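Q: Please design a sequence for this.
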């Protein structure tokens, strides 16, 4: 696992022609689905990031989890420190292809109120993240 802090950058006015591959940032920290929520929160804090890319045992993208989502899970009444990311992730979450235009990705982010979208190739590998600048 490589810990890399992802930097967000503003999406350009040339969004109609640029692709997600042109505009994405590094995928950032990638963790495995068997990691506990507590450890994932520690990795986020150490990497100073608000999200983690969750992969399966083959290194394929499963989900993008945020600090807010992990904190919400931790605040549930049935939570224990044994809850793993596989227990809270959904493999059908939103993602974009590297060939998706930035305009299409921006529209999806605004429409669904996503702060970030993972860019995933046809083999299921997380290539990067598209995020709104703050």
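A: Design:
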């Amino acid at each position: 696992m490589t810990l890399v802090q992802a930097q967000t950058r503003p999406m350009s006015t040339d969004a109609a022609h640029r692709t997600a591959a042109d505009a994405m940032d590094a995928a950032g920290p990638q963790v495995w689905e068997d990691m506990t929520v507590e450890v994932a929160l520690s990795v986020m804090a150490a990497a100073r990031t608000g999200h983690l890319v969750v992969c399966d045992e083959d290194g394929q993208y499963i989900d993008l989890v945020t600090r807010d989502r992990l904190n919400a899970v931790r605040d549930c009444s049935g939570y224990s420190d044994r809850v793993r990311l596989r227990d809270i992730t959904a493999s059908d979450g939103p993602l974009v292809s590297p060939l998706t235009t930035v305009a299409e990705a921006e529209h999806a982010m605004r429409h669904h109120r996503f702060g970030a979208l993972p860019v995933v190739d046809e083999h299921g590998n997380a290539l990067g993240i598209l995020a709104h600048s703050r």
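Q: Thanks. Anything notable?
A: The radius of gyration is 15 Å. The chain has one domain: 20-131.
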